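ENTRY TYPE: paired fold submission
RECORD: A
CONTENT: sequence, then structure tokens
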Amino acid sequence: MSPTHMNPTHMNPTHMNPTHMNHTQTNPTEPPTVVIVPGLRDHVPHHWQTLLAERLDAVRLLPPLRTGRLNRDAQVAALERTLAQISGPVVLVAHSAGVVTVVHWAQQHHHTVRGALLATPPDFAAPLGEGHPSPDDLSENGWTPVPMKPLPFPSIVAASTDDPLAAYDRVAEMAGAWGSRLVSLGPVGHLNPASGYGEWPRAEQFVRELS
């Protein structure tokens, strides 16, 4: 499926945490560094995150983990190490389990985050199906329960109406708990190469909006 076949964007009202403005007011003219946070499969060729990174000037990609890829603490620590090397503001661009990494990170660490694009988060409370970690594996590795508290920075949750890894209503519930603006992308699967993405031009639009 190509991006031209996406349904029109539907945006729900923003539920902003009052701390958002204070957290992002530091030198608002300084351009942010975009930090790419992949899912558990790390960076995949032809994935929209990989293609987005190739087009941006100020961008960091989380280095792939050699061990402990399924461990939440290892993933959160990798994100924190990357952010610690950046002195200015950032925009986080997370996909799939990378979204859950960002949400866990935000409960433990602080950085000047202008905003976060959180694309197609999975529902780790439900079985994900063949080829994916089981609920027991996710629990044992610290992923669940997923925090359901407001994030301390603005965020956009980009949700699919036919994501095999999460029901739309469940993603809407998570977005509400995180204080995120929910954007329906229509039927885009899990927004990955297996679903026909590939290029996803709207990612750049969302990044500009959050910057």
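RECORD: B
CONTENT: sequence, then structure tokens
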Amino acid sequence: MELMDGGDNKLRDDTVSRFWLTEQGSNLGLGPLILKNTGSEKSKPNMVAETYEAILGTVYIDSSKDLVRLKLAIRKLGLGPHEFLKEAVRKEEALEMERQERERQEEEERRVESI
């Protein structure tokens, strides 16, 4: 699934993603932990979503952009899978398999050339 299929799909995806981020952040109890301006009593849903997204982004960057590790961290935190993440992990795993296959073929070619 492409994230940029078109305007309507992008808007829908952003809305679904924002809702999911807010829901997951709320489930973790992030709302009360967010520092707010004086006079603000409650965290707005968008603040919760952005905080949760920042946590996921930090794990992703800290793991050297390893989507498999990010997926593991999400699972260990007890969070539900997100469709975009599932697709990204599948792509990452496919790329890794392709890389391993190329390495195997190159090794086989080197072995044949040395005979």
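NOTES ON RECORD B: The longest helix spans residues 83-113. The chain has one domain: 7-113.
STATUS: closed
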